[in-house]
Amino acid sequence: MTLHLPQRLCWIMNPSHQQVRFVGYMLVFFGILAQVSHGSDPTISETTFTPISGWKASSHIATMYATQAAAADESYVYAISNTTIAQINRETGALVTTATSPTTKHLNSGFIFNQKLFCAHSNYPNEPHQCDIRVFDPEDGSIRIYHVFKDPPGSLVWCIRRGGNWWCCFAHYGKKNHKTCLVEYANGGLDNEQRRLLFPEKVIEDWDDMSASGGIWINDALLTSHHHFPVLYKMKLPSQESSNNRLQLVSVFDCPFPGQGFALDFSRTGSRNQQKPPLVGISRPKRHVIFAEAQNKTDKRSPADR
């Protein structure tokens, strides 16, 4: 007896060389398509740490400008892209205004100071590094250059203040990311370098060839973000007596921001939890500004215990 199979079933059981190649091409195509659909987002990778309970999302605002960082004051939230600062009404989510300039190339984290938004800016990925701080004034909607760095030690990714001084992080990437450093400038200005600190080796190993995309001070603790992992690294300064110029890792928290720049939510500075104050950050894949509040769970284990 002769068994006659449908042509489609014969194709599956005994494919030709052309059909095998076609299937291979289609698998490659859909693999690329899947990667593109994630926005080439590396969050499919995972941190090497086991994060403890940190922050959870409380609300969000959708905006196309949420690609680099976010900051917030009492009335507005600021979404920052490579070239544009978007001022958004935090109650309604309505876009108020945008600001840019012909020379704006690569903005990074934003920091609220004296009712203005100070943003790190660089010529990344070009070299030699050219870095400056740009300030957005909500009063007139302007963006201006505040300070230009001479011979910066990397690509400026965030600039914050503590103890009356500026602290600026200059990033490196790939095999050179261990050169990423945090610089404290003396006397409230940005011309006199007071000290330069490197990051903990365990944190650098967890960066996935990237760097520290955002940072804030919470009292004496430095909190920094990953480039694309939803974690925050809590660090402290080395002791004054120590000859070590490397920050010390205290703990690693989970958070709702898959990397990038974040900031304190200054509209809620009266929060009872001063160790975990409200934060604002972004989800680049979703184009969301995310408001975050502390989770109630606690875990006192140190990174060395995990």
Provide a concise account of the structure shown:
This protein is 11% helix and 39% strand. With 306 residues, the chain is mainly β.
Write the layout of secondary structure elements.
Elements: H1 7-13, H2 17-37, E1 55-62, E2 69-72, E3 76-80, E4 85-89, E5 95-99, E6 106-113, E7 116-122, E8 131-137, E9 142-148, E10 155-162, E11 165-171, E12 181-185, E13 193-198, H3 201-206, E14 215-218, E15 221-225, E16 231-236, E17 248-254, E18 263-264, E19 279-283, E20 288-294
Antiparallel strand pairs: 1-20, 2-3, 3-4, 4-5, 6-7, 7-8, 8-9, 10-11, 11-12, 12-13, 14-15, 15-16, 16-17, 18-19, 19-20
Question: Could you explain the architecture of this structure?
Answer:
The longest helix has 21 residues, at 17-37. This protein folds into 2 domains: 1-33; 47-305, 5 Propeller (Tachylectin-2, Chain A). It has helices at 7-13, 17-37, 201-206, and strands at residues 55-62, 69-72, 76-80, 85-89, 95-99, 106-113, 116-122, 131-137, 142-148, 155-162, 165-171, 181-185, 193-198, 215-218, 221-225, 231-236, 248-254, 263-264, 279-283, 288-294. The radius of gyration is 23 Å and the shape is globular. Helices cover 11% and strands 39% of the residues. The model is unreliable at 1-14 and 22-44 (pLDDT under 50). The N and C termini lie far apart (67 Å). β4 and β5 form a beta hairpin. It has 306 residues and is mainly β. A 4-stranded antiparallel beta sheet has the order 1-20-19-18, with no helix packed on it.
Which consecutive residue ranges, at least 5 long each, have pLDDT under 50? 1-14, 22-44
- State the domain count: 2
How far do the termini sit from each other? 67 Å
Compute the number of strand runs.
Answer: 20
| CATH architecture verdict of the largest domain | 5 Propeller
CATH topology (fold) name of the largest domain: Tachylectin-2, Chain A
Profile the largest sheet. 4 strands, antiparallel
* Gyration radius over CA: 23 Å
| Total of DSSP H or I helical runs spanning 4+ residues | 3
Derived structural class: mainly beta
Helical content (DSSP H or I, runs of 4+) = 10-25%
What order do the strands of the largest sheet run in, or round the barrel if closed? 1-20-19-18
Give the strand content: 35-45%
For the record, the CATH class of the largest domain is: Mainly Beta
Secondary-structure element series: HHEEEEEEEEEEEEEHEEEEEEE
State the shape.
Answer: globular
Average residue-wise pLDDT: 86
